[in-house]
Amino acid sequence: MQSQSRLSESAYSSYHTPNSDRLAAILQEMEYINTIGKSFVAAIDRFQVHRALLGALQKLYSFAACSILLKGDPFELSIIPCYPLSQVFIAAMIERIASAASVIDFPAVSVEELANASYLDAPDDLSITQKLGSPVQDMIGGAVIGSFLNVPLTVENRIVGMLSLFDEREGTFDTDLLKLTTMIADYAAVALENVRLRERETALWRQAEIGRQRLELIISSMAEGLLITNEQGGITLLNVSAQHLLAQAQLDLKQNSPLRTLALANNVSWLHKLADIIDEALTGVTVMNQELIAGEAGEPVPLTLSISAAPLHDASQVQMGPIGVVAVLNDVTANKQIEKLKDEFVSVVSHELRSPLTAIKGYTQHLMRRIDRRLRKTQQEQQSSAISGVDLPENYDLRSLSIIQSQADHLERLVNDLLDLSQVQWGKLHLQYSSFYLADVLVESVRSVQASTEQHTIYLDIAVQDTKIVADKMRMSQVIGNILDNAIKYSPQGGQVTVKLEEREGDYFVSITDQGIGISQEYLDHIFERFYRVRNTASRQYSGIGLGLYVTRAIVEEHGGHIWVTNNKGLGCTFSFTVPAAAHSD
Ligand code: ADP
């Protein structure tokens, strides 16, 4: 028995009726399409789409239920009953859906999988309490499917799923209404696709929002200050730590203010340096650990910041250059304080060590002289009494004392290096300038070092006549002495050491080449750092604490010169330094 609404009857018999009736039927049909169109457009979630679908279909047929199978990963099956249905009927529906799914090219799934994934969406006004999988309620509805209709759900010619209609009675679904049913299915398909897109968009937005909030939390709880600028160097972000650091430096930087303008307006020198770092990073260069003194210069340990800045590139790479800079500000004042304490401690201890050392050296010398006198006297007595070749105890004493003396000299050099370290650290390397010939200092140093070694031969090659400079003579001889001592120390097999003095472009150029163990390429950049020792030398027999070259570089640079080292292929290395010919003139 077929049951149709009045609309379908009138609309489809309209082709055989007079014009005015036909017009009325078309109008009615359009009104119908308009109504269902509106209800689909207004649907904001899948349940509202289901309601709209049910409403539209019920105007065409009186039926038991419909279902929507949507493709996707995961796929979705919604069963929408028009009245309470028995479990058997629903199970039969699922079976039919499974066998019909191949029509829409649905991936092969079992009836159980479909049943598990299905969702029973009963309209609110139906007091349906049944759930899929609950015990069969035979009292409700029939058990056999009498009629069945499948319509593909398409969006822009793409099949996105399948709409199926079911009824207990036979012949419910009139093929005359197929066109309208397909149209309703299309409406539903578009509405469901929109809902899907909206849901996906909402999920993405929520995810992005969670990510944004997390990032904000990370940035605000970072112990390091974070400063981000735009491509003009204008501040676009300052986290709490950065604001705190800048407040400590008596600065109140506002977002969007260009750093350079702020630097000019505030007349704060370190702000200029910060702007320089940002400008450098804006050229595409990454700047690492640049220290800035942001506190009052007069303070014992002023606020010191270590800044690293990296160019920020457009993620889409549309823009070639950086679109800004991200800079990290670290407060390293505490480290500086510890360093200062350590240096002060080293300086005090070194000072304290000096007095006993002076006494040890003085008394050793005194004893050596006395024993030497006594020895000579005894030797004279032996000669007069014709006794000779007897090893006198004074000889042994003298040897012991000379060991004490050389060890005391070594200790004195270490103490002096430590004292120099604190002077260099705190920029208090006060030079005593005088006028002298650099060649003389070289000759003197070479003579004294040559006296300490028999294994090595030191060649001196002075290629310039007038070598007059104004510099600190003691410090200059310390520089040459340090390099020469190392040349001897790190050439345990002996060999030649060549010292050259030339004049190059107005500078005096000194090079000291040895034939020792050399320095591997990877260490060359580090050996002028304080306490740096090449690993293989530190662990071996060479004594030292890695300060000599650090102090040496400080002295050379304080005189306006440069120092560097090169490796001689396979044999030793060459240390070179320059001293400006007019190093200093008062
Ligand atoms: P120290 O000699 O007390 O360790 P320096 O500062 O004088 O400290 O030298 C630093 C390091 O450089 C040394 O530990 C050594 O590894 C390396 N070095 C210096 N001079 C030479 C040299 N002429 N040949 C090889 N290695 C050298």
Describe the 3D structure:
- It is a single chain.
- The chain is an alpha+beta fold.
- It has four domains: 192 residues, Beta-Lactamase, CATH 3.30.450.40; 110 residues, PAS domain (Beta-Lactamase, 2-Layer Sandwich), CATH 3.30.450; 88 residues, Helix Hairpins, CATH 1.10.287; 152 residues, Histidine kinase-like ATPase, C-terminal domain (Heat Shock Protein 90, 2-Layer Sandwich).
- It has a five-stranded mixed β-sheet. A five-stranded antiparallel β-sheet has the order 7-6-10-9-8, with helices on both faces.
- Helix 10 runs antiparallel to helix 11 and helix 13 runs antiparallel to helix 15.
- The radius of gyration is 47 Å and the shape is elongated.
- The N terminus is likely disordered.
- Adenosine-5'-diphosphate binds next to helix 13 and helix 15.
CATH class of the largest domain: Alpha Beta
What's the average pLDDT? 85
**Class per helix and strand makeup:** alpha+beta
Tally of DSSP β-strands: 17
Give a short account of the largest sheet. 5 strands, mixed
Unreliable stretches (pLDDT < 50, length at least 5) are 1-15, 127-139
CATH superfamily of the largest domain: GAF domain
Per DSSP, the total helix count is: 15
Shape: elongated
> What is the strand content?
15-25%
The count of domains is: 4
Which small molecules are bound? adenosine-5'-diphosphate
Nutshell version of this structure?
With 586 residues, this protein is of the alpha+beta class. The protein contains 15 helices and 17 strands.
